[in-house]
Design a protein that fits this description.
With about 70 residues, the protein is mainly alpha-helical. The chain has two helices and no strands.
Amino acid sequence: MSIKSFHIVFVACSIALSAFIGVWGIREYSATRNAGELAIGVGAIVGGLVLVVYSNWFIKKIRTVKELR
């Protein structure tokens, strides 16, 4: 597996983990009304959205970069 492929897979796993933690944090907030859990949930969702934007930028970038041989 190339480093580019590994990077794409790693970012995709990070997006999935961010979504999971975001949903978990918001569900915990709805059960306990603890502001810290809401902050974790919202922060994870924002981080996941930033990762989505980054992954789109990265995929466009690697299509234009030629392999170094």
